[in-house]
Each structure stands twice: as structure tokens, then as C-alpha cells.
Amino acid sequence: MKTKLASTFSLLVVLLLCGAGGSAQDLHPKLKNGEKTVRTVLVLPPKVEIVRQGVKGVEGMIKESEEVEEVILKMISNVLNEKNINLAASPFTPQSLEANNELKYALADIQTRYDALLPKMQKKSNDVTKGRFSLGDEVMKLSPEGAADALMFIRARGVQPTTGKQIFGVLTLTPSFPIVALSIGLVDSHTGDVLLYAKPIAIGDAVKRGEKVLNKPIAKSLKKLPIAPQNPKKGGSG
Amino acid sequence: MKLKARSLVLFLSFALVCSTAVPAHGVQNKEGFVFTRVDLDLLEQCDLLDKRLEKEGVVYVNESLNTYVGRVGDSVLPRADPPERVQFRFRILRDPLANAFALPNGSIYVNTGLLALLENESQLAAVLAHEVTHVLNRHSYLALRSYRKKMVAINVFYAIGVWNPLTGALGLSIYLLANVVPVVLAATVYGYSRELEKEADLYAVARLSESRYDVTEIVNVFKLLQKDFEGDQIKVFYNDHPQLEERIAYVNKVIQNKTPKDDSPASTDSARRLYLTATEEVIRHDVQLNIDAGRFHAAVALSQKLVDFNPRASENFYYLAESYRTLGPRAPELTNEELTTKAKKDARKKKNKMTLEEQESALMATSGGQSNWKENQKKAQELYYEALELDRSNALAHRGLGMLLEKTQKSQQAIDEYRKYLAAAPNASDRSRIVHRIEALEKAPIKQ
Q1: Are residues B296 and B246 in the same domain?
Q2: Is residue B264 in some structural domain?
Q3: By residue range, what is the domain housing residue B311?
Q4: Which chain A residues contact residue B355 at CB under 8 A?
Q5: Half-sphere exposure (CA, 13 Å, Cβ side) for A2?
Q6: Which of B80, B155, B173, B334 is the most exposed place for a label (fewest CB within 10 A)?
Q7: Candidate from A55, A102, A168 with C-beta closest to B429
């Protein structure tokens, strides 16, 4: 019993530490040494999956997940603004996607390509610093004419335990609490190289108190992203 | 105090089990199915999922193909009105894996990978009839109810394990039971039960027998599903679908007295041609999806199928050329040794560990990989030329040829082919990418 208590406690401490600040972030050497400058970022539609976890199992929360997507986009936009990084106007508005299947497929295919690479990055995120990961130059389809220096991919998975599950967790010494694990990838819009990869963890009810819960972990996770130098020519490639 | 806490946990667990056994306030409809709040929540999630799949670009949109699949789907529906809260819609999902699934709201999705694998309309009808049964017989709701009960049981056993008050032999057996039962239950949680899958197979047999389709083709669908192009079909200790051999056996038993509608070679060939004519475009799309997903062996097999079916289409030669080019240092087909369970598991580990580029580099370091690469590039080059022979304006063939020549370090020829591509497709979505490649090649010292 003592071992179980101790392991639960240590897990809690680790998670709290992650949420409180220690979120991992890895930078490509080109970004780190200033060889590549990011002035404009095209943020791709995030993929967020939050589920409700009760004693009777897991239920989907698709509508709530979409609301959290909006909050994440807002938080990301704030952080990038603080770093003098412009947000490229997204060509992926619901109207443009509805009218253009080719554009919709191109976006879906690049997102799928990123998702295929993601498990390897999660396993060895430190390899981003060695420039190991790339999506290839096909990413240029999403940012023709160099409209952006980098593309941002956002993923989030979260759990919202019900009150019943929380009580049950306390009684069985396995505390359950709302948590969202994010992953943010910044990819060179010309070469497809992964420039930055961060894994912030937000503890708290992101559905009800999105901004409050997500703001700090997201800001901390992009702390190492260099501030863009002032440049009169907006959208220039680095 | 300790005893009180334990009693409380046991009482709560008991209450939870009881609560799942009784349906929540539901509405009984004419078929006798009572919708609970949980069922209605699931239905709402499914409607949202439909919209999300569409929004994310994973639904394949092609009017004529959608009409075709919809017509085949409608023909296996019962004549009566659909059940309450069901609206049948047949959709195509851009996914190279051979799969299909049904949502309880009546949305039935067939992957491009499955459409590309099938050989005739009867097989497609069999797949759709199977999925229709899951909707008609409310299998998703039943599976969800069963899942919820099992989850409660898992939690109860877990709680017992944590608060096990007994020691000695009895205590140990309770401990073991509490730890083993959740694992067994968890293994049965995912997917429909084997009984529900069997029910869907047998309904498909009944529906096809009553229709103009050839019921014996159901068995051929299972045989096609056994094809393992990529060596990624690994048997696990529990699967929701009965094993394919088992399915072939019980379906064969049911259809043994039924004769094929018309099994003359001419009729079989005509049925195949009709189906491939309707699906040729989506098979091409699926070949590209396979290439993008690193499923190069499947891409070669499917594009070869396209060329065999329609050798006059320049596009089919282009896709076969692309498949060989991207196959790189791999052999076009996996060997029997590579298809053993152990070899498949090893290959999966490697795939999980290495990126595609790293896998290719490792293969290129071997003599076998080198010789495969040379052969595949040679074959691809011939196929690009055949594609261009059939249609000089095939822009994609110029682009593919350019990429092949770039890789084989024939820079000037690569630049020429890229320029031909840009001239033939001035509004191509990847124009910037190709311009960038030309610029890079021009900067580098020219090699011939």
C-alpha cells in the first residue's frame, strides 16, 4: 500500500512540475544559432481531442474539443505576437475549404504526414536538436510564394474526469484530475524540417476555464522560440 | 475506520453495477429499442463526428463515385423505413487501410483502401450489407452498453484489489482475481463482440441472396482481406472480428447450397470491368494515399491492377511509375520469410523506431537494397516514358521523371523535366516547390 501511495504521489509531483513550468521544448540547430529566422507563422487548424472519463468509461466531447481549439489558437496567437512573429492569414477558412477539395486534401495529407512522424518525435524529442525530423518539401504546397516562414502544428489530448470518477479515484488512491497534454511543432515552410517541438501539459478544466488553464503552459513551452528581429518587410523568409 | 471506508467503496461499487443494469429514462420505439440518455449522447457525438471528418478533409468527394456507392448501398437496405434516428448515408474515407465502419446514425464509411482492393460490385454490396446490419440491429448502442458495464466491473475489481481486507491464501486469490479480471474485461471492451460481427456477416448473406448480387462473393471479400501487402497484419490474442478463416468457414456453410448467379468467365470478367470502371479514379487516389503513408508494396500492387485493367490510360502508367520510384531500395513484394509473425513484429519495431528516410538509408547500405533501387528506378523511368507516350501532356509524369532524374543526379535533365511540368501545369498547387527545386539544382554544379 505504501508503495502505491508513494508512486501516486510521485506521479502527481511530476505532472504538477510539468504543468507548472518544466515543459519540454527542443529547437533545431538552425533556429537555435540564428541561421533560420521565423518572422511569419501559418498556424494550421489544431486537432484537439478531449474526452470525459467516468467510472463507466470514456465518452467523446467533440463540441467541447472544438471550443478548446479556439482557445488554444488565441493563446498561441498571443505568444507569437509577444515575440514579434506575425500570423500569416490562413488560407484554410471553412469557406475556402468547402469550395476547394484539393486544398482540403492537401491540408489533410500534410496533417497526416505530421501525425505519422509525431510518435517518433514524442519518443525522442531531443533528436529535434539534431535536425533529425522533416516532413519534406511537400509542405510548400501549404504556403506557396513564401507566405510564411514556418507552419505550426498543434495537437492536444485531454481527459475530463466526472465527479464520480474523481471520488472513486480518491477512494482507490488513484486521483483523477482534468489534464490536457499538448504538442506544438514548428516546421520550416520550405524544407519541412521540424524547427521546434514542445510538449506543454496543462492541469485544470480546459473546457470551462480554457484561457486560465492553457495560457501559462503554452507561453512557457514557446519560451525558447527566438524573438523575431524587427523587419519592415513582413512575411520575409529567413 | 478502515472497515468503514472499505464498506463504503464496496457499497458504491455495488450501486454503480446496479445503475448500469437498468436503462436510464428512455423512449421505446416501434422496434422495441429503448433509447437511453447515453444512447442519445452517442448519437449526438456521431453526428458531430460526421461533420468533423468532412471538415478535416478525410472524406473523399466525387459525385459519380458517391452516387455509385450510394446506389449499391441502397440496394442492400431492407424495404421497410429505416429505424428511428437512422438516416443511411454511404461515404468514402480517404484511408489506404482496407476497412469499413458504420456509425449508429446510419453513416457508413468505406475506406478508399477497401474500394481499391475489391474486385466487383457484389463484393462491395457484401461489405455494405455487413455494415448496414450493425446499424439496423443497433450494435453500436449494445456495444457501448456492454462497454460501460465492463468498465464498472473493472473499477469494482480494482477497488476490491486496493481495499482487499483479507490475507493468506484467500487474500491472494482475491488479489489475483482483482488484477486479472480487469485485464480480461479490458480485452473484450474494444469493438463489437464476435457474435455481433457474425450476425452482420450472416445478414449480409441473407441480403445478397435476395438481391441481384452474387452471394458467393462474400467469401472472396474475406480472401482479399487476407492479402497482406505490407506485412502489417499481425494476429493479436483477441480481435473483435472473428478470424478470417473462421468467417470463411461459417459463411461457406450457409451458402453451400447456393449457386453463383452466373460464374461463367465472361460474366465474371464483365462484373470486374464494370466495377473497375466505376472505381478507377478512386483507386488512383488510393495509390497516392498509400505512397504518402509509406505503404509502397500496396501502391505497386494496386497501380499494377490499374495498368492491367486499363493499359491505355496514361495516368495509370504514371501511378505505377510513381509506385516504383518511391519503392526505392525495397523489393516490389515481401518474401514468405518477411511475412512470418516474427518478421512482421521485427519490421513493426523498426518502423516505429526509424523515419522513412532512415529506413531507406539503412537499406541503401546493403547490396540487396542497392540493386533493388537500381531496378526500381529503371522500371519507373520506363513507365514514365510509357505514360508520356500515351499522353504527351501528362504533366505529372514530367514531374515524376524530374524527381527520378534529380535523385539519380542527372541535374540538367531533371531541370528540363521540371520545366516541362510547369509549362504543362502552370497553376499547379506545388509550383513553388518545383521552382525551388529548379533553383537549387541550378545553383549546384551540373552533373550528367
Answers
A1: no
A2: no
A3: 272-443
A4: 117, 120, 132-133
A5: 0
A6: B80
A7: A102
